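PROTEIN SPECIFICATION:
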Amino acid sequence: MRSVFFNDLPIRLKFALPMIAALSVMLISIYIYVPEYHKRTLLHAYKRDALRMTEFFAEAVSTALEEHDFKLVQKSIQSAKIDANVLFIVLYDDTGEQLAVFNPKNRALSARKKIQGIVMEGEKSRMLIGQLIVSSNKTILGHLLLAYSLEEINRQIANFHLAILIFTFVAFLLGSLFIHAISGHITRSISDLQKQMQHIVDQQTYESTIQIDSKDEVGRLAEVFNKMMHEIDLRQKAILKTRQKYLDLYENAPTMYFNLDPTGKILDCNKNAIRALGLGKKQVLYANLGNFLKAAGHTDWDSLWKNVISKEGAQDIELQLKCKDDTFLDVLLTSSCQESLDQKMNPMGQDPAQQSPYTVRVTLSDISHLKKFERQIIKRNEELARLYAQLKKANKKLKELDRLKTKFVSDASHQLRTPLTIIKGEVEIVLRKNRKPREYRESLSIVQDEVEDLERIVENLLTLARADSGNLVSLEEMVDFSAVCEEQVLKNAVFAKTKNISVDYDIQSRCWVLGDPLRLGQLVSNLI
């Protein structure tokens, strides 16, 4: 979170704040450390002087005590008045009883009697120094207690603190002003660069250049920015040119394009869509596209339409578009979501704050010709199905005819074998011995009958073979079928007589048919 806050600051503050913070840390360190160091130094000097003085008085008192000269003791202690920082001196004997006191300012004596070394007392307003009085033969004669005032050192330290505070404040103020001036000088060119860049972006004058006189990093940045603006200007012109081509393609595309808001209202459409609807553009804009569509075969139209105008979009939905004269055009609908509205897609000049969060691009492709082909294909399929049924039926009939042909050939083979057997038998009988002429005539008559049967069977087989091979020549002409029937009856009546068969017939006269007279004659002969 701090880094985000710092990133949002102006660059001048980003430059100045760390320097001010560093200056503050440095000055605070000076304010804290220097007085403390000065205090320790002064206190150390005072301690050193106090110890020396205590040792001096202890030596003088020790000499006076060894000589048993109490006046000299008093005189030695009274000589401490030369140092204004000495508050009092108390001399104790070895039993702790006071022997002498020097207290010119009548300060309260310390309750401590035997102190070795230095002890702070009175909230560090004075220090007590204790020193043993030892004779020349190392015998302890007593104890000397000296109180040294710290008021002077505390006053010096306070004055020094005040001086350091004033110095710190003045240094901070001067340093801040210096940092402010330096940061302003450094960031002025950056600020000028930012203002000129913002002006170029706001006015969209990408051919403009930035004027920065400095040769430092900012100046080089301005040069790079000018080069970048030149490239952007070239690309912007190319984009505008491409955009114009796109708009031309959009307007003149054979496909119908609609741009809708999330409720399905038409925001824009191309010329082909207007032409298909047969209405003026003002009548089409802000009308609901769903009112012009009909979903054949879809029962839940509301759910289908919500899917079309949703962010997910819809793919390849076959619908019907209501055109002029209440006719319907078969179309294929595809929709997709677009996150931003183009200025071209906002023809009514709508306030951007009031624009929809997204638009829906609907594409309608004319598939009426495909539907026509589909109906033709269905019709052809139905016709092929009918022809297939006929072919299947004809194939079944051909199989039946093939079966009959096979049976006929089998029967014909049998019929051929029978006359040949009879002829062979008659010939063998005739050749076996001499016969009378009447017997020869009877045998030859039988042979003749069988030969005629063979001739008729062979003729039928040849006719069948020609029909199977496709070499059967058939004429088509108007034939008197009555005459053909009468002719064949008369021909076969001769053979019928030989077999004692009578032929009766009743033929209707002048019955004309279209056909081959030869084949019709064979047909009637075979039937007889």
Summary: The domain at 11-169 is CATH 3.30.450.20 (Beta-Lactamase). Residues 341-350 have pLDDT under 50 and may be disordered. The chain has four domains: 11-169, 253-366, 370-472, 474-528. The longest helix spans residues 368-432.
